[in-house]
Structures are given as C-alpha cells and as structure tokens.
Design a protein that fits this description.
heterodimer; A: mainly beta; five-stranded mixed sheet; 9 strands; B: mainly beta; globular
Chain lengths: 112, 113
C-alpha cells in the first residue's frame, strides 16, 4: 500500500493561495494520486487526480514532484467556502481490486 | 450528486438491535464501498464490493454484514448493534475502469444507545 502523510491542519487567508502538501514516498509507478475534500458533515467530494504531470481543473491545481514521492494541491484563490478537510489518497490495488484508503486528511481553515 | 443516495439520514437504535443502512446508486457503477467516520480516525473502510455478488472485507469489518444482490444496491447490516458502532456511515461508488473517482452519498448518522 502506498500510504500518504498530510499535516493535520493548515490555515489560509481568504483570497490567497492555499497549498496543501501530501507525502506518498512509497507510491508505485502505476498509482495515481487523488484529492478529495469534505465540507463539514457532507460526503467527500472529488477534486482532482494525476499520475506524473501537473494537472489543473476548475477547482484546483495538482503539482506532483518528479520523483512522485510528494504532491501539492493548490487552491489558487481560497474562499471561506474552501474550509474543509482535504484528503490525499493513492489507488491501492491488491489482487486487482480497487480499494481507496483514506487517512485523516488536512483540516484547512480559510479566514477572512 | 443525486446519483447515490443513503437512507436513513439519521438513525437511533439500542444495543443489540439489528440495523440496516441502505445505499442506492443509479450509475451502474461496479464498485461500491462502505466507510465509517469517527472523530480522530478519518474515513475507515468497512466493506467493499467489486460487482454484484462479490464483496470483501475492508479495514474494520467486525460486526457488519453486507450483501450485493443487485448492482445498484449495497446495504450494510449491523446484526447486533453496539455503542462502539455509533458513527457516521458513508457509502461510495465508482466505475470499474481504473482510476475512476469516487462518488459519496450524504451519509447516515447512527447512534447506538
């Protein structure tokens, strides 16, 4: 299993970029990095995923280091509504099964 | 996303009772998952299913039973509820293709008294 490590909490000023790091030093060559977020008491929501190259969508950008041992989720202009718990996971696939395993994530607080 | 629904939204039960949490998805996704979420533990996988009639244990399966007779439904049963099973339960689904994202339901908040 490629475990992930994230800081338990971070804070960010509204309008600034929020940079959330994730360490996945044991990731395998064919494992993707996924990011989800969970706004209070709701089900987690998909944000973005990537393999090697940097990715961007309407929600965020994902920067993956060249050695793939870590990644950073970037919310370019954080708003108060981005306050949530952010999870970084990698695809675990023993025996052909797809088992997404979540850690405790990073609690991001965006303040005015 | 209205494609995956959980019921009930809230449930209070007593120790020793049987409780079934329902999960229904409309996308015909192959994979379905049950997670529980407790303070300090994040999301922990209880059971998952790769297809109808195929289920397997996750990280914390003890005390739970699942079935998947139809692709769209994946009920989770607590055969004899205990207070330690008080938690928020989330169901999720994803397509079979590799690297497909998960879609989560809104959760069921279960209290066992």
């Amino acid at each position: 299993d490629a475990k992930t490590t994230q800081p338990p909490s971070m804070d960010c000023a509204e309008g600034r970029a929020a940079n959330l790091p994730c360490n996945h030093s044991t990731i395998s060559g064919n494992e993707y990095v996924y990011w989800y977020r969970q706004i209070h008491s709701q089900g987690p929501q998909y944000i973005i995923h990537g393999l090697k190259n940097n990715e961007t969508n309407e929600m965020a950008s994902l920067i993956i280091t060249e050695d793939r041992k870590s990644s950073t989720l970037i919310l370019p202009h954080a708003t108060l509504r981005d306050t949530a718990v952010y999870y970084c996971i990698v695809r675990v696939e023993p025996g052909g099964s797809y088992i997404p395993t979540f850690g405790r994530g990073t609690s991001l607080i965006v303040h005015p | 996303d209205a494609g995956i629904t959980q019921s009930p939204r809230y449930k209070i039960t007593e120790t020793g009772r049987q409780v079934t949490l329902m999960c229904h998805q409309t996308w015909s996704h192959s994979y379905m998952f049950w997670y529980r979420q407790d303070l300090g533990h994040g999301l922990r996988l209880i059971y998952y299913s790769a297809a109808a009639d195929i289920t397997d244990k996750g990280e914390v399966p003890d005390g739970y039973v699942v079935s998947r007779s139809k692709t769209e439904n994946f009920p989770l049963t607590l055969e004899s509820a205990t207070r330690s099973q008080t938690s928020v339960y989330f169901c999720a689904s994803s397509a079979f293709r590799t690297n497909e994202k998960l879609f989560f339901g809104s959760g069921t908040q279960l209290s066992v008294l």
